[in-house]
Amino acid sequence: MLKSLKGSIKPRGNSFQVKYDAGRHPHTGRRIQKTATFKTEKEAEQFLIEVNYKLNNGIYKVETKETFGEYFKRWFDTMHKKTVAETTAETRDCLARKHLIPRFGYRKLSEITTMELDFFYSDKIDDDYSPKTIKELHILMKKSLDQAVKWGLLQSNPALSATPPSLVPKKAEIWDYDQWDQFLEVAKAYGDEEFYTTSYFTGGRRGELLGLQWKSVDLEKKKIHIHQTLAYTKTKKLHLKEPKTKSSNRTISIGDLVVEALTKQKEKLEARKRELGDGYQDLDLVFPNSFGGFKTPRNKLREFYSLTEKAGLTRIPLHNLRHSHATNLLKEGIQPRVVQERFGHADLRTAQEIYSHVTPDIQEEAAVKGENAYNARKKKA
Question: Keywords on this record (predicted)?
């Protein structure tokens, strides 16, 4: 049997040395030759049998002195950031530098355990980080260590058995129509109600509206075509890119209020072009900055918070104008599938999870309407 095994056993004084080829290093490509010494020949033979079994079945672990920090950088730069959007890569790189590298960067890759990861997540909870942030950290650890297993640097992934906190959907803070009217009065006074009217009644994302061009707006047919979004990265700065999901490419029907708002916006921009002449950078944007170029999403957010404060309203994220529109549609009896398509959610389940807070109200209304319909039928009979 020993003749069929790869490797050799040779006596060395009062002991026996096993020498075997452990494949090639995943980074350098060099052959990895290993030796091990045992007191008896039987122990050496048993070890060589076990090593061959692991090598033949792809479960042999290459011992490496590489630290997690060194490994993570190589994995992130050569693998991960090439498979995700640039904005996602920058966000995850920032997360890793702030959280993962300070905690695990100096540790040997093979020394990280499931228990340590659980303690790490627990510490982040104690530091008041959100479950969403901790979940992102867990995903990063899992993805990176999955590749370490594939490269033969780890025998198993400790993150697979780790337990990050559960993501409990939070009820989104929204504005009802009275609060919206209160905000709109202030927005009108500061001359920017057109953007917010479009946002509130279409559910368009901030980046989608700031990247919207007139060629994608059909006021006669009352349609807006969403096929790009404004994004920012360190390398490309502000730029237009495709939405991150296929479902985000969509056509939104608009009503008279939005048509009126967009018509006013077009008139404002035409007047601005005449005023600035060659100083106006015409990118065909519906909601540009004062000189026709891209308006920074962060500046738009600051503007929204300022108007909210002036209106005397509780601050909500700008994104929640989108939630407000969806909630009102659902309460008016619009089918969830229609809301999903209008808002560009990846699937119906996503929409249902986000707007689950509306379901109890709809259920109560359905119960009343069902009984009323039944009673009305009996009265006719």
Answer: DNA integration, DNA recombination, DNA-binding
